[in-house]
User: What shape does this take?
Amino acid sequence: MHARLLRTLIVGFCAGIGLAACGDPAADLVLINGKIVTVDDARPEVEALAVVDGRIAAVGTAEEIRPWIGADTEVLDLQGRLAIPGFIEGHGHFMGLGNSKMILDLTEARTWDEIVAMVEAAVAEAEPGEWILGRGWHQEKWEAVPEGAVEGVPTHHRLSAVSPDNPVLLGHASGHAAFANARAMELGRISPETEDPEGGEIVRDAAGRPTGLLREKAQGLVRMALSEARKQMTPDELEAEQREQVRLAGAEALAHGITTFHDAGASFETIDLFRRLADEGALPVRLYVMVRYASPEELEVRLPRYRLIGYGNDFLTVRSIKRQVDGALGPHGAWLLEPYRDLPTSTGLVLEPLDEIRRAAEIALRHGFQVNTHAIGDRGNREILNLYEQLFAAYPDSTDLRWRIEHAQHLHPDDIPRFARLGVIASMQGVHCTSDGPWVLKRLGPERAESGAYMWRALWDSGAVVTNGTDVPVEDIDPIASFYATVTRRMPDGEVFYGRQALTRMEALRSYTLNNAYAAFEEDRKGSLAPGKLADIVVLSRDILTVPEEEILEAEVVYTILGGDVVYRAPAEPAR
Assistant: This one.
């Protein structure tokens, strides 16, 4: 038996029967003098804990934990600060986060003029023909509608004027639309005669000319041209770029107290990279990865070879697939039961045919993979609930499936109780509510918004498992901001978006920790601070469970602890 495993077993035994019976096994790390909220019903709050070989060995009072301190033990005096289980990002895009750090960041732009100026500056530094990429713009966050706009979004002409020789592609904050300049559309073979692809739309002006706005799968026309350009890179150059994206994403996650990341969609090739990094011990955070970008036929052949549980010392798990039935509410891509209030000619877009989702789900079910489907509109959610219910009935011997709906943003009231009844997890993002709130009424109207938009309280009270995240890089990877949104529903302008749907602070904490662990079949080793579990912990500068509401956003991460190692320390002592 390996010495480390033997030591872990001995420590676990000693913790169970009392230290005196086993001598004094020294801990690698001890946290003392804190308020440690464990999210463990057996012992909800303690003041100290001990870590041995990456796992929690004991929790208790300072007096109970003091015997674990040896000559080589690292002792962190929390000075009364709050320690909680490491945040688990319940739905994000890991490589997308890394990539967002390597392209133009458009999230803070408040006018189209700012974006044009950013692109002009990038062109000045680029070679002719070099692609200019960016992400994060959102027309509803601009101070004014640009002159000559079509459906609230400008035409490409001013952008094309500053970038005549460089293709430009700027992703919407949601990821469900993009804006292209003339050169990019030319490379993507987009002209007035180009037909809309299935599941996408080339937005056009009154004369039928493409404006530059590409909804959903229409983005693929330009992205294929970008892919062709990237074929000039060598395999070593591509892998170096991907490794840098992993590094940047990991650093950003750890700085925000995230120790596990649910990656909502990676190709088999990206999973191969993750596995190589896990073999090297080079994954910066723990990943729970959903297989995406594969046809049902490819899933049938390849899926069994990619099932990984706790691979690389619990750093990589692959046991789920991701599908997508509709788009996002902001770009009018969510699939609705009734037309958009501000675009009455549309009920949104279907991105994957239901028959294809069904075939993929059946393959996943046969191979023991969880199914996680993106659904935002009330029609999209209803159709996926229907599909899940039919498959559950067809395979009655398959139990504890924990299938998820990713986002579940807008629901018909009749469908809310179905989540709990079917055992479907509502994988939601609190910050979407307050970020989207200022314009949701434009899309849905007040009646549909109040009865079905971001129904956290109703889902929770129905008995459904509700999880939390940020959908990064759609939103900033900040659990504290999403926690704040979940408990306050307060929008940037100070108004509250239907506050009756807020959760309590402890419920919100559970949604970001133990519920996310449950949604990944990992509640036995993550999500709470109990003996035997992985020592993934975050220490905050303020007690987000008790401070006045307006002070929650002032909380900062002081330490992020991953497997008992302090992997992030605040560069300066945050104010308490």
In short: The two ends are 46 Å apart (CA to CA). The domain at 1-86+528-576 is CATH 2.30.40.10 (Urease, subunit C; domain 1).
